[in-house]
Each structure stands twice: as C-alpha cells, then as structure tokens.
C-alpha cells in the first residue's frame, strides 16, 4: 500500500514541479492541478509539502513559483556544472573580444539545451536562457549540433515537423538537409533571423574524445552588424580548448545526449 | 490514508534531494538512506521515482547525482534568475576592468548565498560557486551583508560560534564587531586570507528601495596583488546601477533574506 501511494505521490509531486516553464514561471494552485490533471485536494496536499521544503515558494500575488532552494539543489547537478566550469572562462575570452551574446549548448533529445550564456549591455537582446531549450533547426548552436550528428539522427530530425519562428526559418526538410551539408562542409553554422527577427548567429561544433559532436559554441549578434565569419577563427580556437579540457577532465556531455540516441535513431 | 502516506512520501523524496551537497555531489543508495535515516527499501523506492522523472541520475560509477532536469527546473526560480539577469551585465563590466573573480551575493539565514559569479583564466582559483553558501564573517560579500544588517542581526550572528577557516579568520566576537563598525564607516568590506589562504577581497553593499541591505557585490583577488581599495569606486558605481535596476524592476532580494529576519532577530 505505502509503496503504491508513496511512489505515485512522489511522481505526482514531481509532475507539479515539471508544470513550470519559462513561459509560465508562476502558477496558481488551480492552474497546477489543471496542468497535472490532478484533483485540487491532491495538488493542495502535495504543494504544501513542496512549499514546506522550499521546492516551491508563494510570491506576493499568492502564485506558486520554483523555490530558491530548488535552484540551489539543481546547481549541484554535476554534468551542467562541470561543463559550465570548463566552458565559461573560454566563453569569457570570446565575450571580451566580441561584446556579443556567447552560447554553449548541448543536444538533448531533439532540442538545443543552453548550458551557459554570457551577455552584456551592448549585446542584442535574445530569448536564450541558461537551462532553456530551443529548436535545433532555427538556432546557430542547434544547427551546429545537428549538422555534425549521425545521419540517422539528421534523418529523424528532418522527418519531424519543422516549426516556423520567423519568415526566415528553414522549414523545408530538403533545404534544411542542404543547409546542414554546407555547415558540415565549411565547419560552422550560420543563422539569419531564423529564430528571432533582428538577430543572426554563427556557431562551431565541440567534439568529444571519440570525435563525436559533444556540444557547440556560438555568437549571436544584431543582424545589421557586419559579417559573422569574422568570429569563426576565435570560435574554433576556443571550441578546441574547451574540447581539450572536457576530454582531459573526462567531462561527458549531458547524458541525455548519448542515452537518447537509440530513440533518436 | 493516501494523505498521510502521500505527504510523507513527498517529504521523504525531497529529503533525498536535500542530502546532496557541494562536498557530496554523488551518493550511493546506502549513503542516501543513511543520511536521510530511511529504510533502504524506502530509499530504493523513492530514488526510483526520482530517477524515472530525471530529478536524480546515476553516473558511470552507479552513484546517484542531481539530474540535469532538476538543474533546468531550478533555473526557473524567479528570484535568483531575475537578480542574475539584472546583476550579470554590470558584473561583466567589473570583470572586464579587473579580470578578477566577481561575486554577487545575498544573505540567507546566517549564511552568504552566492547568486552570481564571473571568473576567468587570470582570476585566482577560489571555492565560491553559484548557488553555494559560505559564512558571513570570513568572506568579503558576507562581511558587507553583515555590516549593513540590523544591530539585532549582528548581535545574533556575533553571539554564535565563529568558525575558523584560516589563521586570519576573525573568530573573536569583539574583533568582528569592531571590523563591522569600520566596514559600515568606510562603506566597503575587506578580507585578507580569512576564508582561503592566498586570496583577499573587497565588497560593497547593494541597498533596496527602503535603504536596507539587499545584496552585496565584491571582487576576490590574489592576496599578493596590489591594494584592493582601487576597486571600490567601480564596485560602488556598479552596485548603485544594480540597486537602481532592482528597484525599477521590483526585484526583491531572496525571500529568505526578509522572511528569516524574525528568527534572525
């Protein structure tokens, strides 16, 4: 009995945490219960336990949000923490030269997961956030990850519907395949207002010890600024240093990146 | 029935997450059960639910660690996220001038909670980490937070045992009180190898709309480098900009900072 209830209660409590997104960072009890298809009484009971521990906190509008304690615990996750510790100093060097948004990302499932971001006052405002996910076909770091993935993964990705974000997003599978071939050929990806109007990007792959794609490093600039290719030499140099450090420290990419391949294929 | 089991199962599952620390980022099932004073069977059942959801993941040594999914969810916590979004660009400006470790911290209970950190290749290696806690009496940002706290809070803090980290740590309440008075007087804190041998720091307070201490901003450099006071003008300028932005965006400090005051008093 305890087993059944216990397991399901834990899973339901985790579902409540999973209901929060960057688009919906705060939710009422009713919204939480609805999103999790849960009786209000159950949601109320589980939310109370989550709030008591600090996983959730109530804001001044009496809406629930992820608690600072969960932020602290989440930062203990070794994979993103070690990748950040390795990548950030090199990203810092790139930022100092460019003063633009610098991204370090990995693939998770069919999405781009942003592990680290550096930005400043002069950088163009963009929607990317650390710990946030964006598509692979419409972002620079995503295209770099996709272009150097296995043929099987690319086939799977291109067979899925390609969401359009701007009139420049590549949504035709054939065109995306040609774009990825060109990206592999020249060794870096380019986007031109494909995710957000007004910003364009360039990114390079970061390879692991087996020579497989592990992550990607990119710069996002305002689309009216001069040519992106000028960033490629620095991006490649820093990407090589990050790859070397990751290999030296046996820092594997985000586990999902490897684990989900069977499903990806 | 379900209620009792449900609530306790959720709380026990959260206890398992809380067992991980920066000193112990990976734990075996047995270690988890021991730390949470939980029967192995219960721990096994709850860990399975946590792992299935992605809150925990098992590494190659078959040890458990906080999962990347929890890292993603934790980053949705609005308070640290908004404070980081506001502070980081100004910290970036400080980093570019100094090339040293830059810290932005708040007080939580009787500890210094590091909200944001910028570092590079040239900065002295230090133990601070984003989301990590360090004492208030032995760190620059901590002393700045403590010095500008209420007399009641300072009394409470000084009445508690002051842990020694190096031979330079101030562990005598009277000496700490005098140090805090000097800090208030001159408007910035200084530490000299009080947390870690080889590093010293300078920090300034960040005030909220009520003129109360909300956070602190500091620089940590190698102790042999030249005088720290040269950083004070830039620190004060950036701290003022951060305070202005926090007030404009109604960005309250970490709730614990206010909520725990009654206990603090």
Automatic annotation (TrEMBL), chains A, B:
Protein keywords: DNA-binding, Transcription, Transcription regulation
Gene Ontology terms: biological process: negative regulation of DNA-templated transcription
PANTHER family (alphabetical): HELIX-TURN-HELIX TRANSCRIPTIONAL REGULATOR, ICLR FAMILY, HTH-TYPE TRANSCRIPTIONAL REPRESSOR ALLR
One Gene Ontology term of the molecular function aspect: DNA binding
This protein's record includes keyword Ribonucleoprotein: no
Pfam family, one: IclR_C
IclR-ED domain ranges (all copies): 69-248
Lineage: Bacteria, Bacillati, Actinomycetota, Actinomycetes, Pseudonocardiales
Species of the source: Saccharothrix tamanrassetensis
UniProt domain HTH iclR-type: residue ranges: 7-68
The protein, known as: DNA-binding IclR family transcriptional regulator
Tagged with keyword Signal: no
């Amino acid at each position: 009995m305890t087993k059944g209830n216990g397991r399901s209660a834990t899973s339901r409590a985790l579902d409540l945490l999973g209901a929060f997104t960057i688009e919906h960072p705060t939710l009422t009890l009713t919204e939480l219960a609805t999103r999790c298809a849960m009786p209000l009484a159950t949601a109320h009971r589980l939310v109370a336990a989550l709030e008591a521990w600090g996983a959730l906190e109530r804001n001044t509008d009496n809406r629930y949000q992820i608690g600072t304690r969960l932020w602290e615990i989440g930062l203990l996750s070794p994979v993103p923490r070690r990748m950040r510790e390795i990548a950030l100093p090199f990203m810092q060097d790139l930022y100092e030269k460019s003063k633009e948004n610098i991204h370090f990302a990995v693939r998770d499932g069919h999405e781009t997961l942003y592990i680290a971001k550096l930005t400043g006052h002069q950088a163009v405002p963009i929607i990317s956030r650390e710990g946030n996910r964006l598509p692979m076909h419409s972002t620079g770091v995503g295209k770099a990850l996709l272009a150097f993935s296995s043929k099987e993964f690319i086939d799977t990705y291109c067979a899925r519907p390609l969401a359009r974000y701007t009139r420049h997003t590549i949504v035709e599978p054939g065109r995306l395949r040609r774009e990825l071939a060109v990206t592999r050929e020249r060794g870096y990806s380019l986007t031109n207002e494909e995710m957000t109007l007004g910003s364009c990007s360039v990114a390079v792959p970061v390879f692991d010890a087996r020579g497989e794609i592990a992550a990607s490093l990119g710069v996002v600039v305002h689309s009216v600024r001069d040519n992106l290719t000028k960033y490629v030499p620095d991006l490649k140099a820093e990407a090589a240093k990050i790859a070397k450090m990751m290999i030296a420290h046996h820092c594997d990419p985000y586990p999902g990146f490897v684990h989900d391949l069977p499903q990806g294929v």
